[in-house]
Specification:
Elements: H1 3-20, E1 77-82, E2 96-102, E3 107-112, E4 118-124, E5 127-132, E6 142-147, E7 152-155, E8 160-164, E9 172-178, E10 186-187, H2 188-193, H3 201-208, H4 212-219
Main location: secreted
Subcellular location: Secreted, Extracellular space, Apoplast
GO cellular component, one term: apoplast
Length: 228
């Protein structure tokens, strides 16, 4: 193989590899505190003037040790997310976290994070958790596990996953760390049946192989967001 061709091949492989492992951009300075009020739109947030930065830009009194109300949620869970919108110092650092409270028999329903891998740690109680692989010739495989206090489970980026408290008389609590300052969340039922404007019932009836009346009923429900 000619040297020029070999160099081109290596360069292309390096680009592909870098794209495959890319997440939030790596910081090029000590910090880039988000200027939430800047009118300039970029992929992320414009940096605040470093001379105007102080310790409060890296701090939030989130009271994550306090239980959240799960009784008002139809799905019986409450997600308290700490991302760049709540903590500007996270800008460009590629991390965020969430406290998740589950009522007895409550769940964090099937959803995805389009921009982040998630690692979940159970602080109290028991959770049944799992994720489903993308489409393959052998279908979509479910990886699921029952977790107890202190156990850890990972949900790969972009894959549909869920958590469910199977105990009928005890709540559960977990902390999730995510590999993006703004991981995003797409709750499957909400996105499919609660979009505005709604997806055509012809499309959904054929996709789910059900009658249009079933789709119409589902679209008429109130699809609640349990992320705060």
């Amino acid at each position: 193989m000619a040297p020029a061709t070999y160099f081109l091949l290596v360069s292309l492989l390096a680009v592909v590899a870098s794209q495959a492992i890319a997440s939030d951009p790596s910081p090029l300075q000590d910090f880039c505190v988000a200027d939430i009020h800047s009118p300039v739109k970029v992929n992320g947030f414009v940096c605040k003037d470093p001379m105007a930065v102080n310790a409060d830009d890296f701090f939030k009194a989130a009271n994550l040790d306090k239980p959240r109300d799960t009784m008002k949620s139809k799905v019986g869970s409450n997600v308290t997310l700490i991302n760049v919108m709540q903590l500007p110092g996270l800008n460009t650092l590629g991390i965020s976290l969430a406290r998740i409270d589950y009522a007895p028999l409550g769940q964090n329903p099937p959803h995805t994070h389009p921009r982040a891998t998630e690692i979940l740690t159970v602080l109290e109680g028991t959770l049944y958790v799992g994720f489903v692989t993308s489409n393959t010739d052998n279908g979509n495989k479910l990886f699921a596990k029952v977790l107890n206090k202190g156990d850890v489970f990972v949900f790969p980026q972009g894959l549909i996953h869920f958590q469910f408290n199977p105990i009928h008389d005890k709540p559960a609590v977990a902390i999730a760390a995510l590999s993006s300052q703004n991981p995003g969340a797409i709750t499957i039922a909400n996105a499919v049946f609660g979009s505005k404007p709604p997806i055509s019932d012809d499309v959904l009836a054929k996709a789910f192989q059900v009658q249009k009346g079933t789709v119409d009923w589902l679209q008429a429900q109130f699809w609640e967001n349990n992320h705060n």
